[in-house]
Amino acid sequence: RNGGDGTFTDMALIAGVGYSGDGRMEASMGADFGDYDNDGWLDLVVPNFQREPTSVYRNEGDGMFAYESSRSGIGRGSLAFVGWSTAFFDYDNDGFLDVFIANGHTLDNIELFDASATYPQRNQLFANRHDGTFQDVSDQVGPGMATSKVSRGAAFGDYDQDGDIDIFVVHSKKAADLLRNEGGHRAGHWLHVRVVGVTSNRDGIGARVEIQADGLKQIREIKAGSGLYGQNDLRATFGLGGKTQIDLLQVRWPSGVVDRIHNLPADQMVVVMEGEGRVVESQSEGGD
Length: 288
Description:
By secondary structure, this protein is mainly beta. Helix content is 6%, strand content 39%. A hairpin with an 8-residue loop joins β2 (43-46) and β3.
């Protein structure tokens, strides 16, 4: 917890995120925060070692987290893998955050003494089912997710500017993979938000971006450093499903300044400058 005076206090044990659900220490790698249930509070996902379920902690809004690995479905689905980098992101633009995990064992000869394990492993994509649970759809989203490699880091961003999030994955002793998302912009509408700090830092690190669209509320935080060995696109990306207009876009800056913009059409990128309270630039981004 940030004390506001340059110091921090370790609250993991008290908050319920220091151990697994049964109180065990685990071999964790990457981690990411994101509001997967759209309740306005950032939840936490942490991949772990083989036979240790990926930890999913749901923020209860009172400084405490509930251990949701089993209920979410991600825990059981990750037991056979060694997880590294991870991220919450909306791969199908339906307005709910999904989970990607980069997998690969640490031992290149693991098959010699553990017949159930392999050194190269497939990565995993868990689709949000809108009810607090996730479904492993890794074998349903194309050849990019079908290969088995020794993955480590991953970074996320819309490199082809078509409105959905692509993935760049790095591997041990293999060339990196660029996984282009071919379906997100077709499945749902979207909004990219780039923030430019004035009093706050230029990239708006620490800013919280919130949108409301026909009853759907979502939040993102602008972060430096992502998952493990990576840096994601600094733009906040929102999937909107069938909604074509954003009723409210709000940016709360580290300085305390709050900018609010109303009635924005979907399927574009907007640039918001701190304290201006308006869209500095509006740029439609196409692609199919």
